[in-house]
Amino acid sequence: MRLEIDYSRCTGLGICEAEAPDLFEIQEDGSLSLLVERPTADSRAAAQAAVAGCPTEAIRIVED
Amino acid sequence: MSIDIFEDEDEVTFLAATNVDKPEHSAVDISTKAFWAKPSEEREQIFKVLRETDPVSWQRPVEDAVTPDPDDPGYWALTKHADIAQVSRDHETFISGQGVLFDMLPPIFLEMSQSFLAMDPPRHDKLRALVSAAFTPKQIKRIEDKVLVAAKETVDAIAAKGSVEFVSECAEVLPVRMFCELFGVPDHLRAQTAAAAADVVAWADPEILGERSADEVQVEACSILHEIAEEMIEARRANPTDDLFTSLMNAEVDGQRLDDFEIGAFFILMAVAGTDTTKHTTSLTVKAMTEFPEQRAWLMEDFEGRIGPAIDEFIRFASPVMTFRRTAVKETELGGRKILPGDKVVMFYPSANQDADVFEAPETFDLSRQVNPHMGFGGGGIHFCLGNQLAKSMLRAMFRELLTRIPDFAAGEPELLGTNFMRGVKRMPVTFTPETS
C-alpha cells in the first residue's frame, strides 16, 4: 500500500492529520507533509479514514 | 471603499439565469415562507418526497426575498446527498462568485459580509490560506486548554442555578469567547460583536426584525462589525498583538495588503461562521439528548471512548446551516436534469443528512452510528468548513462539562429562529439538579 497526494487539490485543512497523525502532518506554513509513503497494514484503517475524510479528494491509496 | 481589488482578470462575467429548457415549477414548493416557518421535522417530510420523486426539482424563486429580482426564473433544488457532493466538489462548474445564499440579499450586504465565502479560486484560495494555518489539528490542540477552561467556566456560571435560559447563558458563551480570543476582540466589544453576528444571519426572523426591514437590520449589523474591526485595526497599528487579526493585517495577497474594508468583511465572515453554528448545534443537541435519554446514557457509559463519533451525530442531527447556493457556468447534468450556464442550484443540507441511501435509519439520533458522512460542514470541496475541528473541540469540551456536572439536564420547548439559512434556537429553557460544591 502506497499513499499518493494530489497537492494541487490539497487545501491544508488537516482532516487527514486528525484521522491519521502518524501518516500526515500539516506544516507551520499550511502545507501537507506525507510522513510515511508506504504505511504498514496496521495503519490501513487510519489511512482509509483520511482518504474518506478529505473533502477535496486529495489522497489516494495505491495498491502495488 | 476599494472593492475594485476583487476585479482581476480571473473574474468571470456575470451570467444571468435563463428560462430556457426549464420544466414547470415544482408542485412540491419549498420556496414559500410557510415552508420555512414549519418545524424541521415537517420540512423533512417534504424533503423526503422530493428525494424520492424529484431529487433535482425546479423551484420558483424564494417567496418574500429580501431584495426580489423580477427576472429571476427560479433555481434547482438539490435534496440528495450524492448531488450535493457533486456540486460542492466541482467548483469549476458550480461557482460561488455569483453569490452563495439562498435568499436574495442586497449587494452592499454581500460585499460587507461574505469575503472569501462568495469567491472562487484563485482569490478564494489566497484569502482562505491567510487563516487556514490557524485551524489545523496541531493548532487546535494548542488551544485545547483554552477551550477546556472556557467550557468549564461557562458551566461554572450556570451549574448552581438549576434553571437557565440555555442559549444566552450557555450555548453562545463558549463559541463567542473562543472567537473573541482567537481574533483578539477586546472585552468591551465582545457583547456587541456577538449580538451583531447573530443579527447578520437572522434576516427573516420577524421577532428580531420588529418594525425594521431585513436589509436595514443586516446592513446595520454589518456596519457595527465593520466599526469594531476599524477600532481593532487602529489599536493594532499603535500596538501590534499576537492574534489572528494582526496576522490578517500584516498578510499580503499578490503583493498587496488587505484594505480595511476587506479585513472587516473577513472579520464578519469569521464572526458569523465561528459563533452561530456551534451555538445552535449545542442547543439542538441538548434538546436531542432530552428526547433520546437512552442515547445520553449510552454516551455516558464511556464518554471519552464514544464522544468522537458521537459529535458527528450531534452535527448531522442539528444541521444548523440549511442552505447554500452555487451558479453553474458550464452546461452539465445533475440527477438527470440538464443544467445550463447561469442556472442557480441550491443545496439543502438537512435533506442530505436524512438521505436513506447514505444513512441507516436517518430519522434516529444514534450516537453509535459508524458510517456518518454528514454534510454539516458542507458537501466537501474547497469551501468545506474551515473551523470544523475547532467546532468539534468546543462541542466535546462543552458536553463533557454538561454531562458530568449537570447530567440530568432537560430542555423545554425551544423558540426557533425563522429563517431559511440557519436552523437556530433563539431561546430554550433548560432545568437540572443544581450542582452542589
Automatic annotation (TrEMBL), chain A:
SUPFAM superfamilies: 4Fe-4S ferredoxins
Domain (4Fe-4S ferredoxin-type): residue spans on this chain: 1-29
A Pfam family matched in the record: Fer4_13
Heme keyword on record: no
Names of required cofactors: [3Fe-4S] cluster
InterPro entries reported for this sequence: 3Fe4S_ferredoxin (IPR001080), 4Fe4S_Fe-S-bd (IPR017896), Fe-S_cluster_ET (IPR051269)
Transmembrane segments: none
Keyword check for Chaperone: no
Keywords: 3Fe-4S, Electron transport, Iron, Iron-sulfur, Metal-binding, Transport
Function: Ferredoxins are iron-sulfur proteins that transfer electrons in a wide variety of metabolic reactions.
Record-given protein name: Ferredoxin
Protein species of origin: Nocardioides dubius
Automatic annotation (TrEMBL), chain B:
SUPFAM superfamilies: Cytochrome P450
Family statement drawn from the similarity comment of this UniProt entry: Belongs to the cytochrome P450 family.
Record-linked PANTHER family: BIOTIN BIOSYNTHESIS CYTOCHROME P450, P450, PUTATIVE (EUROFUNG)-RELATED
Protein name: Cytochrome P450
Organism: Nocardioides dubius
Higher taxonomy: Bacteria, Bacillati, Actinomycetota, Actinomycetes, Propionibacteriales
